[in-house]
C-alpha cells in the first residue's frame, strides 16, 4: 500500500478547494483506500472547507496541514498551534525545504514543531534533504525531497533515492519513507518498484484533481 500525499503549498482559494473536492466526490468510486492512502494538505484557510466536503461526500482521503507552530496555544501572533489543528487534520508536514530556505527554519525549531504535533496526537511527515538528517522521536513518515528536484521537473535519480532511503532506514527502521520532488504521471513509474519508497509527496501535480487521481491509479497498479 502506497501513501500519496498532496502538498498544495500557497495555492488554491476556498472556492478552488471546494471545486477540487467536488471532482473527488464525483470520482470517489475510483479512490481505493485499501491500496493507496491519500493525504491532502491544503493551506490553513482551506482546511475547514476541505474537512467539511470530505465528510459530506464521504471521500476516503486524509487531511494534513503544511506547518504548525513550535509553541503551544498562546500569545504567538500569526502562528497556528497544534491543538488548533487537532479537530481538523490527521497529519502535519514539518520541515519542508521551502520553510527552511525562505523562513530560516532551523533544526531546533523543527524539533519543537514535531513535539507540539505529537503532543496533540497528530501524525508527522518530516521532510529531509539527505541521508544525514536527524529524524526526531515520534516522526511517523519521512519525505526525502532533495532541493534540486522540487518544482524543477527533474526528479532525483532512482538509484540515489534508494541509496538515501536505505541509509535512513538503517538508522530509523520504524518510519515510512516517501520520495518527493517533481513526481508526476510521467516521472512516477521509475520509483514504483523501489521497495524503500512507501509513497510520494507531490506538489505541482497534486493541484489538479484529475492528475492527482491519475497518480493514485498508477500507484495502485504497481502495489
Ligand atoms: P513538486 O513539489 O512535486 O512540485 O516538485 C514537491 C514538494 O515540494 O513537496
Brief account:
With 223 residues, the protein is α/β, with parallel strands linked by helices. It contains 8 helices and 8 strands, in the order βαβαβαβααββαβαβα. It has an 8-stranded parallel barrel, surrounded by 4 helices.
Describe the 3D structure.
- With 223 residues, the protein is α/β, with parallel strands linked by helices.
- The chain has eight helices and eight strands.
- The protein has helices at residues 14-26, 47-57, 82-85, 97-102, 107-119, 158-171, 189-192, 209-222; strands at 2-7, 36-41, 62-65, 91-94, 123-128, 141-144, 176-180, 199-202.
- An eight-stranded parallel β-barrel has the order 1-2-3-4-5-6-7-8, surrounded by four helices.
- 2-phosphoglycolic acid binds next to strand 8.
Q: Tell me, briefly, the overall form.
A: globular
Strand content: 15-25%
The order of strands across the largest sheet is 1-2-3-4-5-6-7-8
Helix count equals 8
- Specify the oligomeric state: single chain
Largest sheet: 8 strands, parallel, barrel
Low-confidence stretches: none
Helix content: 25-40%
Instruction: Work out the radius of gyration.
Output: 16 Å
Mean pLDDT: 96
Structural class: alpha/beta
The distinct ligands, each listed once, are: 2-phosphoglycolic acid
Q: How would you spell out the order of helices and strands?
A: EHEHEHEHHEEHEHEH
Number of DSSP-assigned strands: 8
* Straight-line N-to-C gap: 6 Å
Amino acid at each position: 500500500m502506497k501513501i500519496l500525499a498532496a502538498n498544495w503549498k500557497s495555492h488554491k482559494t476556498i472556492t478552488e478547494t471546494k471545486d477540487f473536492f467536488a471532482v473527488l466526490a464525483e470520482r470517489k468510486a475510483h479512490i481505493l483506500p485499501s491500496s493507496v492512502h491519500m493525504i491532502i494538505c491544503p493551506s490553513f484557510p482551506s482546511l475547514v472547507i476541505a474537512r467539511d466536503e470530505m465528510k459530506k461526500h464521504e471521500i476516503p482521503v486524509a487531511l494534513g496541514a503544511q506547518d504548525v507552530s513550535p509553541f503551544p496555544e498562546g500569545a504567538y501572533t500569526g502562528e497556528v498551534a497544534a491543538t488548533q489543528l487537532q479537530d481538523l487534520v490527521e497529519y502535519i508536514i514539518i520541515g519542508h525545504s521551502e520553510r527552511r530556505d525562505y523562513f530560516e527554519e532551523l533544526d531546533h525549531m523543527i524539533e519543537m514543531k514535531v513535539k507540539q504535533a505529537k503532543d496533540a496526537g497528530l501524525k508527522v511527515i518530516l521532510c529531509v534533504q539527505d541521508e544525514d538528517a536527524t529524524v526526531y522521536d515520534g516522526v511517523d513518515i519521512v519525505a526525502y525531497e532533495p532541493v534540486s528536484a522540487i518544482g524543477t521537473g527533474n526528479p532525483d535519480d532512482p538509484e540515489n533515492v534508494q541509496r538515501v532511503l536505505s541509509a535512513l532506514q538503517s538508522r530509523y527502521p520504524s518510519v515510512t519513507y516517501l520520495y518527493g520532488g517533481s513526481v508526476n504521471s510521467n516521472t512516477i513509474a521509475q520509483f514504483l518498484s523501489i521497495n524503500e519508497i512507501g509513497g510520494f509527496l507531490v506538489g505541482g501535480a497534486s493541484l489538479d484533481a484529475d492528475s492527482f487521481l491519475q497518480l493514485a491509479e498508477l500507484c495502485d497498479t504497481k502495489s
